[in-house]
Design a protein that fits this description.
This protein is of the alpha/beta class. The chain is 42% helix and 16% strand. The chain binds adenosine-5'-triphosphate and magnesium ion.
Length: 749
């Protein structure tokens, strides 16, 4: 064995508590390794252990590259490796961070200034809007957001989803003009967007053999979590780093692939062996996370997807609580139900931070927040990007970005006149023309503002502004907090907030202070972290990076942000057609399957309790409208389900369990989960009033709505009294016979 400065630790301590397949994966040697397994089977645990195990085998930690899905996960990995000698030297981070890491070191080999700035979506959009203005492009022909998605689509060689047909007449010209200008402007100002981080890193490795070789020999082992959500560029990047004979380990679950819309290719996992020949595959089948009912429910939902390989999953946590589904009368009622459920869990001894509430669209959090507030339940919305999207935070970061990259056009436009320095839109326009005429970046043109034909006042303002940036640039690049302070004082930004009579500016000031505190925290964790590293960190936060365990508060988050996490109690709100699946993805089978996977991801986050709510009506941007339960609910096996209805017959129902057993539901009927538009009424025997219950008459031929099966047509009625049975032809679930007493049918108005 070769000499290693790292003392190996007892390998047995690392695999003793693993099952046999997990141990096989952790200790596998000599060939690429693929671990495919369902949710909660210990994939992430295997990956982390494998890193530790490799270190214990004498592999130097800095020779290990571990790609995680979020920065948080990377921090977590490093934290776990802390007790191993040199453990924190493992390179751990996201694909984007890895791209940035390579380009900061070797970008100049392919003509990229290593002082580049990373643009977030917001910056991209503001640049694009400026381009629209400058080129007189029509936002009615192609909305800037769609144009942005199109740019990503084209950059990725057709990966991802094109929002609109970009080749359509009229659209094409606008798109091409915007695209060219966008690419040119970014290049001219040393700006990279998220796509560039990956694409340019790949180009670097492909074009510069010596750089690729350097990393191939450095990284003896490459490991990737959540492999099902990688795209083709990421895969190619891995192939470059791993090389012909390198060792790679990936773990993933095709059923949890939820980023197809962003270009993720499930094929990466299915064809893994083609890209990394000689792959050894390990399947994990025991789920350690969830109780049997939760697992059965989740499995029943995902089984309906046709584009999948069946997997076997079992748990030894037999039984457990039933999956609790509640139909609310409306959105407000749902909020109350959610708050009530949380309170119940709390009374039963649950910690609040062991409870998570998921929703499909971020806008849904508002109603839940109101209800939690009213009940005095502390909560936190997990959205890491939110803080960094705030106006004042972006302003301060824009100053800092200019210090790091003087050409950063997006940053310059943002703060050159904030606070006011007499540099108005007209001056900027002239500056832009001057820049274009002389082939300069806007930041370079600003240095020659005197020649650009703008007013003396504006030119003076720009000069003062640049002097401030230059002073900050003369400071040591680390630690970062003093640089931010100097910018805040020197620019008068802080003073303008302090002097403002506006209450909002108070809280803006707090956010600015929070950013400075974040910079201090960053310095503590990354003693060598300079301004560029700090800016990279703030640019690459993802929603999930906002997740902080142990807050003592209920966690609210989108399902996408919940990936990889787990909680003892989970509540999924808004389980309705339109959210689950999302209305945008109806009609396209592949997208519909992705929606189902998303629901599977949501359900499988739960360890012990899973509650689901949906509303019979909801006020959406379309107005107040009836809502149909998510078809996924109909797939949950009756004996794992406990349902409650607050909206039956339109009347409020007291708290407590509904006696409605699910035995009379035929849950296993083959389903086309996506409804067609309302069917034409057909031949309706209008007079045939069947029953008038709860004040609502139902007639044969009438359109009805059911909490699980959605909309349908009442076909016939049989039996009588308690045993009255109805036959309904549901639009999506086919013909069902239901016991009227339990059926909770409502007339569709
Ligand atoms: P996901 O598909 O959601 O990413 P995963 O497959 O990565 O899940 P992990 O998060 O690694 O699964 O593990 C799920 C839970 O099971 C964790 O709480 C983990 O600690 C636990 N677990 C995994 N393996 C074992 C084991 N052998 N013994 C005890 N607990 C385990
Ligand atoms: Mg995992």
């Amino acid at each position: 064995m070769s000499y290693s400065p790292y003392t190996p630790v007892d390998p047995d301590g690392l695999v003793g508590d693993l099952n046999e397949s997990q141990r096989e994966a952790v200790t596998h040697a000599g060939s690429p390794l693929l671990v495919v397994a369902g949710a909660g089977t210990g994939k992430t645990r295997v990956l982390t252990r494998r890193v530790a195990w490799l270190v214990a085998q004498g592999i130097q930690p800095w020779r290990i590259l571990a790609i995680t899905f979020t920065n948080k996960a990377a921090d977590e990995l490093r934290r776990r490796l802390e007790q191993l000698p040199g453990g924190t030297d493992v390179w751990a981070g996201t694909f984007h961070r890895f791209g940035s890491f390579l380009l900061r070191r070797h970008g100049n080999e392919i003509g990229i200034d290593t002082g580049f700035t990373i643009l977030d979506r917001d910056d991209q959009l503001s640049i694009l809007k400026a381009i629209y203005k400058d080129l007189d492009l029509d936002t009615g022909v192609l909305r800037p957001v769609d144009c942005l998605a199109g740019i990503s689509h084209r950059k990725n060689g057709g990966g991802g989803r094109a929002p609109v047909d970009l080749t359509m007449q009229g659209v094409a010209a606008t798109f091409d003009a915007a695209y060219d200008s966008y690419v040119r402007r970014l290049r001219g100002a040393d700006l990279l967007d998220f796509d560039d981080l990956l694409l340019d890193a790949l180009r670097l490795l492909q074009e510069c053999e010596h750089v690729a070789e350097q990393y191939r020999s450095r990284f003896a082992h490459v490991l990737v979590d959540e492999y099902q959500d990688t795209n083709l560029v990421q895969r190619d990047l891995l192939m470059e780093v791993v090389g012909e004979n390198g060792l790679i380990t990936v773990v993933g679950d095709p059923d949890q692939s939820i980023y197809r819309w962003r270009g993720a290719a499930v094929r990466n996992i299915l064809d893994f062996d083609d890209h990394f020949p000689g792959t050894h595959t390990v399947l994990l089948e025991r789920n350690y996370r969830s109780t049997a009912h939760i697992l059965a429910a989740a499995e029943a939902v995902i089984e309906r997807n046709s584009e999948r390989h069946a997997k076997r999953l079992y748990t030894e946590q037999a039984g457990g609580k039933l999956v609790h589904v509640t139909r609310a009368r409306d959105g407000e009622d749902e909020g109350r139900i959610v708050a009530h459920r949380v309170a119940e869990w709390q009374e039963a001894g649950r910690r609040l931070d062991h409870i998570a509430i998921f929703y499909r669209v971020n806008a849904m959090s508002r109603g839940i927040e109101i209800a939690l507030n009213q009940s005095g339940i502390p909560y936190v919305v997990v959205a890491g990007t939110e803080f960094f999207q705030r106006r004042e935070v972006k302003d301060v970061l824009a100053y800092a970005r200019l210090v790091s990259n003087p050409k950063d056009e997006a940053a310059l436009m943002r703060v050159v006149n904030t606070p006011r320095r007499g540099v108005g839109a007209a001056s900027l326009r002239k500056l832009r023309d001057f820049a274009d005429d002389h082939g300069l970046a806007l930041g370079e043109a600003a240095r020659r503002a005197g020649e650009a034909g703008i007013s003396k006042r504006a030119a003076n303002g720009i000069e003062r502004f640049l002097a401030l940036i230059d002073r900050a640039r003369a400071m040591p690049p680390a630690p970062v907090a003093p640089i931010l302070e100097a910018l805040l004082e020197g620019s008068g930004y802080r003073a303008s907030l302090e002097d403002s009579p506006d209450d909002l500016d108070r809280s803006r000031l707090e956010n600015v202070d929070e950013l400075v505190a974040y910079a201090r925290e960053f310095a503590k964790r990354n003693p060598e972290g300079d301004l560029a590293a700090f800016l990279e960190r703030t640019a690459l936060v993802s929603d999930q990076d906002g997740y902080e365990p142990g807050t003592g508060r209920v966690m609210l988050m989108s399902v996408h942000a919940a990936k990889g996490l787990e909680f003892p109690c989970v509540l999924i709100a808004g389980a309705e057609l339109g959210y689950f699946p999302h209305g945008r993805n109806l009609g396209d089978p592949a997208s519909e399957e992705e929606e189902r996977r998303l629901f599977y991801v949501a359900m499988t986050r739960a360890k012990e309790e899973l509650a689901i709510t949906h509303a019979a009506r909801r006020t959406t941007y379309m107005g107040d409208e009836p809502r149909v339960a998510s078809p996924y609910l109909g797939d949950i096996p009756g004996d794992s389900l406990d349902s409650e209805d607050h909206a039956a017959w339109g009347a409020p129902v007291a708290w407590g369990r509904s006696s409605a057993g699910s035995a009379s539901f035929d849950f296993d009927a083959p389903a086309d989960p996506f409804p067609a538009d309302d069917l034409p009424p057909g031949d309706m025997p209008g007079e045939d009033v069947v029953r008038d219950a709860g004040g609502i008459g139902l007639e044969v031929g009438e359109r009805v709505i059911h909490p699980y099966f959605g909309m349908g047509r009442l076909e016939s009625v049989g039996g009588g009294g308690e045993d009255t049975r109805v036959t309904v032809d549901f639009d999506t679930h086919g013909v069902k016979q239901l016991l009227l007493r339990h059926a909770r049918l409502e007339k569709l108005t």
